[in-house]
Design goal:
Elements: E1 7-9, E2 15-17, H1 20-38, H2 43-64, H3 72-80, H4 86-104, H5 110-130, H6 136-151, H7 158-175, H8 182-200, H9 203-222, H10 225-230, H11 233-240
Antiparallel strand pairs: 1-2
């Protein structure tokens, strides 16, 4: 691994540093500690922070590793040949982190807990798939993050408030193409979005959300989100908002 791999060519072929994820991870840590000083942070609050940071580190390792296969199917094929990839290691870390967070959040039935793990892990992968155009991944994070701040229990995941503030602050850098999230930042934002949805949705809607996320992951394996967005005028308008022509 080389830290120089934090520099990567964007869609214009310009070298851009993948550092926005680092800024967001630091922000989540600082905000959680600050919240704990002035208010009560539950065990779940520290657990969600730990899960987010683990997901971020796994994504960062994948960023720094030599280029390997893309997509879950290709990673599984590599594993079948006896070759462990950083991408597959990231999947294992994300699943483990999701199980940790779901276990610490207010309990649901066992079947719903499994759906919660699917929701968190699936969101992490979906948001990573969105991080192929400036601002797209951050914009997609804003809605579930705002919903969590409005209706969720802050003490269960104060780091999400920090990530929301951080996302607003770094969005201009992403839109201007002066810096990028990288896998670490994109996976962490998706994982955080999953936590927010898990917190605010009822049991039935959480199952629906988990099914939708599974469907989106299947779509990501068979086509591209960019193609779907380009063919959907409202999504295309939001996607282009604030971006350089």
């Amino acid at each position: 691994m080389r830290w120089g791999r934090l520099l990567v060519e964007n869609h214009r072929g310009v070298l851009v540093p993948r550092i926005l994820g680092i800024a967001l991870a630091v922000d989540a840590l600082i905000w959680t500690v600050a919240y704990a000083i002035v208010a009560e942070t539950r065990t779940a609050g520290w657990g969600t922070l730990a899960g987010l940071l683990l997901v971020f580190v796994a994504g960062l390792v994948d960023d720094l590793a030599p280029d390997g296969p893309r997509g879950i199917r290709n990673h599984l094929r590599s594993a079948a040949r006896g070759r462990m990839t950083t991408g597959l290691l990231k999947v294992v870390v994300i699943l483990g982190s999701a199980a940790l967070v779901v276990a610490l959040l207010p309990q649901r039935k066992a079947s719903l807990a499994i759906a919660g793990v699917v929701l968190l892990a699936g969101c992490a992968n979906v948001w990573n798939g969105l991080d192929v155009a400036p601002g797209r991944c951050l914009k997609a994070f804003l809605l579930p993050a705002v919903a969590f701040v409005a209706w969720g229990t802050i003490a269960d995941a104060p780091s999400l408030v920090g990530l929301l503030i951080g996302a607003v602050l770094v969005l201009p850098f992403d839109l201007r193409e002066s810096a990028m999230l990288g896998d670490g930042g994109a996976n962490m934002l998706g994982f955080a979005a999953g936590i927010g949805l898990l917190e605010i949705l009822s049991d039935g809607w959480m199952l629906v959300a988990a099914c939708v996320v599974v469907f989106l992951n299947v779509v990501a394996e068979t086509t591209s989100f960019s193609r779907v967005i380009e063919r959907t005028p409202p999504l295309r308008w939001v996607d282009a908002l604030g971006r350089r022509p």
